Amino acid sequence: MTHTPEFETPNLSWSFRRAWLIGQNAFREAIRMKFFAALMVLALAAFASSFVFREFNFGASELKFIADFGFGGLSLFGSILTVILTVQLFLGEIEHRTALTLLAKPVRRSEYTLGKYIGAMIAIACFVASLTLALALALWIRETQLIAESPDLFPEGRVMRYGDILMFGVMHMLRLGVLSALVVLFCTYATSTMFAMLMGFLVWIGGQLQHVATEAWVASGTVVSKLGYAFVSLLLPNFHLFDIGDKIALGEAIALSGYAKAMIYGLLYASFYLTVSFISFSKREL
Amino acid sequence: MANAIEIAGLTKDFPVAVKGKRLRAVDDLSLSVGEGEVYGLLGPNGSGKSTTIKALLGLLKPTKGSCSVFGSPCSEVSTRLMLGYLPEAPYFPRFMSGLELVIYFGELCGLKKSEAEERGTELLEELGLAGAREQRIGTYSKGMLQRLGMAQALVGDPKVVILDEPTAGVDPIGARDIGQIILRQKEMGKTVLLCSHLLSHVESLCDRVAILNRGKLMTEGRVEDLLSDGDASGLLIEGLSEEKRVRLIAEVESNGGRVSKRSKSLSDLFMEQLK
Amino acid sequence: MNSKRIQFIGILAAALLLGWATRGLEQSASEDFGQSSDTEKLEALTQARLSQGMSLALLGGYRPIVANMVWIAMDGAWMRRDFDTTLSHIKLATSIDPRHEFFWLNGARIIANDMPTWRYSYEEMDRLHTTIEGRMIKDEFAEEALELLEKGSSRLPENPLILAEMGVIEWRKKDNLQRAGDLFLKAWGMPDAPYYVGRIYAEVLERQGRREEALAFLREMVIDLPENELEAMVPVVRERIRRLERALGK
Predict the structure, then answer these.
(1) What does the H/E/C string look like for chain B?
(2) pLDDT of A57-96, one tens digit each?
């Protein structure tokens, strides 16, 4: 009688379900973090203060100002939140050694990395969606009031393009998605949260100014400076690309092709950084 | 058939701050644990126990050598389907309830949610946490956390259970309960690798032990074999009256022997009082 | 070379390659969004030495508030007659928030009207109008103001007020009625041009002795003017038409 071995090496394929489970828990953890609520309140307060500050604004129209201020809050606080949250979710668990228990389960490093990214992105999406909707609502209310007060200033009805305001939220999510993926990549290397956060803030600022390096690359004269600017321009993602607030605040139409291209650009960068993170984290010793 | 755990020539070096220098945490370690055995890994801090465990769990890549579980290399993620692990001083998300945590880890082990819930409920009951299963982990005591750690280690029904200091920070009753859980696992045919500083615990539970120091295997074998010193020159005498005992001591000493009195250990007394 | 270093170089090379591969897409998306350059903003920022907090707020997107703060800081320098700070802050405010005409118009007015007077004490102010040196100073600042408005016009090409302000400077500060007339006419051709621009254009034509053209312009202009709008000043325009007709014997 032949005896079949009792244990065979089990087969374990890559599973999105495991990444999703980790993501769900990371999200639950994220929304319980104190600074998440603090930044949300801060952003809403900054946004509400635009109603006070608008008195300051010589000549600029009120709706544009409120829109601009709202976009500013989303951009500033959203970026700070993305860097801190991603680092906390990824490295916090490694520092607390919870990651050891989790990675001792049949979980691939890439599933863990993707899960943490998913968790951070759901939390960031909640932040961006709440603020975008609050901004759109506030603008709509104020515009209604202004139209009622002085209809002659609005001969063609509403001037704000609310669809584009929502698209601003989407573009912003893409920008933060790329930033978060880049921070995940730093986390796969970093041993301290301070280092990862510092790098995160640096690339945020660098990415925001990347287009300046691109311009300088084209304009500069010497070979050395051209090479230097080209290096920075090619290395960093262009976060400024996703800033469509200017156009929206001015009530100008935005080409749909622009949205499509920016989306492809953002998704390409986020996927690239995540893929590199998978490779880098799979080699990391815990 | 392959051994439950097979470690062959395991060596692990870590880089240190000085360039070119490396610290050898485990040095050419070879050992094997048979199926159904309870195996104790002993050694002082820094002896290489945790590094060995991490290598078994695939969390570290050996510099040299290999480890496998039932013939499956530890570098494979799928090998961990056969492993359950309780880390030293486990830390879990404080916002989850005990049951939620066990379900979460169960699902990560590939169980369906309903299966994980069923198994989690059973385990928590078995481990004496039935009343606290809906309670937030943040409110758990150290002992409860340790039991919860056991539950998450066992939820995937692993063939091999690795326990790193399961009794650290647990009171003697808790330690005894954990000991019983370990024995139950043995009865169920599971293999247990146990790291503990509580030597009496290891002595009473383990079939075999290995003692590590500075990354090297100092000795390894069955507990009885290691503890018997061959010439049996020491004797334990019990059941004599006070008068006969005094006479025996005088007789031994007149023949050049030595008699030392054995007192109860604090652990014995504590357990007696609580019976 | 150790494996970590190889991995780092590999990632760097892949990131650069991705940057290269997506360059076309990036440029094309940026063009579709009609994004403008920020180089000037950065240059102005380095000149004005903003505090770190302000720079961060600017980076975060709080442009209007930062531009307003810069403008308020400029106001202090303006009161102290601090030439360099006033000028650098005007340039900074316009580059931070170039979308609103306010900074362009008022900046140019400060440069063209106030700054020349800072060269003399109150007692000697007359020299600005009576001496050759004074005229040269006026001219120099007028050029500076026109340069600023030129930039403003390139940022807001549809804005008639900026062109009209350039016309005013050409007329009042440089006595170049020909150029002023061209600018007013261009501004008048824009969709949102205020009514007074047309009236000033006619005035400039008249002052150049081109009365026939002024009359023809005003006759054409009055046809489209709304009677019930105060700003259109229809009775004033009609009166000027009559005056010109009388003068030309028509």
Answers:
(1) CCCCEEEEEEEEEEECCCCCCEEEEEEEEEEEECCCCEEEEECCCCCCHHHHHHHHCCCCCCCEEEEEECCEECCCHHHHHHEEEECCCCCCCCCCEHHHHHHHHHHHCCCCHHHHHHHHHHHHHHCCCHHHCCCEHHHCCHHHHHHHHHHHHHCCCCCEEEEECCCCCCCHHHHHHHHHHHHHHHHCCCEEEEECCCHHHHHHHCCEEEEEECCEEEEEEEHHHHHCCCCCCCCCCCCCCHHHHHHHHHHHHHCCCCCCCCCCCHHHHHHHHHC
(2) 443 467 777 787 788 888 888 999 999 999 999 998 888 8
Q: Which amino acid is at A108?
A: R
Q: Could you list the beta-strand ranges (E) of C27-172.
A: none
Nearest to C186 by CA among C222, C157, C210: C157
**pLDDT tens digits, residue range A136-180?**
888 888 888 888 877 777 777 777 788 888 888 999 999 999 999
pLDDT tens across C216-230, in order?
Answer: 999 999 888 888 888
Q: Does A22 touch chain B if contact means CB atoms closer than 8 Å? A: yes
Which string of b and e fits C70-82 if b means at least 16 CB within 10 Å?
A: bbebbeebbeeee
Average the pLDDT over each of B120-129, B169-178, B242-251, B263-272 and give the range with the smallest value: B263-272
- Find the CB nearest B80 among A5, A104, A285: A104
User: Which of B59, B72, B93 lies nearest to residue A98, judging by beta carbons?
Assistant: B93
The C-alpha atoms of residue C218 and residue C208 are separated, in whole angstroms, by: 15
Residue A205, CB-side half-sphere exposure with 13 Å CA sphere: 10
Of A105, A107, A285, the CB nearest to B61: A285
Could you tell me the pTM of the whole model?
Answer: 0.77
Reported in sequence order, the residue ranges of chain C that DSSP labels E, i.e. its strands, are: none
SS3 content of chain C, % helix, strand, coil (to 5): 80, 0, 20
Residue type, B14: F
Check: CB of residue C57 under 8 Å from CB of residue C65: yes
Two structure tokens written together for B273:
């009082």
What own/partner pairs with CB < 8 Å and gap ≥ 24 does C168-174 have? Answer: C168/C200, C169/C108, C169/C112, C169/C142, C169/C145, C170/C142, C170/C146, C171/C204, C173/C112, C173/C138, C173/C139, C173/C141, C173/C142, C173/C145, C174/C139, C174/C142
A-interface mutation test, from C16, C31, C62, most A Cβ less than 10 A away = C62
CA-based angle A94:A97:A102, to the nearest 5? 85
Radius of gyration of chain A (CA): 23
Mean pLDDT taken over chain C:
85
CA–CA distance, A115 with B110 (Å, rounded to integer): 16
Nearest Cα residue to A74 out of A123, A127, A33, A136: A127
Comparing alpha-carbon positions, the chain A residue that sits nearest to B103 is: A21
- Beta-carbon contacts of residue B230 (< 8 Å; ≥ 6 apart): none
Is the ipTM above a cut-off of 0.95? no
Q: Would you call A103 and B78 a contact, using CB atoms and an 8 Å cutoff? A: no
Residues B205, B225: Cα–Cα separation, whole Å: 15
Comparing alpha-carbon positions, the chain A residue that sits nearest to C31 is A258
Within 8 A of C39 by CB-CB distance, chain A residues are 212, 215-216
Phi, psi of C34 (to 5 degrees): 60, 45
Query: What DSSP letter does each residue of C2-15 carry, written as one string?
Result: -HHHHHHHHHHHHH
For residue A183 the two structure tokens come to 């921070």
Please name which of C105, C92, C198, C223 lies closest in space to residue C153, comparing C-alpha atoms.
Answer: C105
Which phi and psi angles does C173 have, rounded to 5°?
-100, -30
CB within 8 Å: C65 and A211 = no
Q: What is the rounded CA–CA span in Å between residue B155 and residue B163?
A: 14
8 Å CB contact between C94 and C103: yes
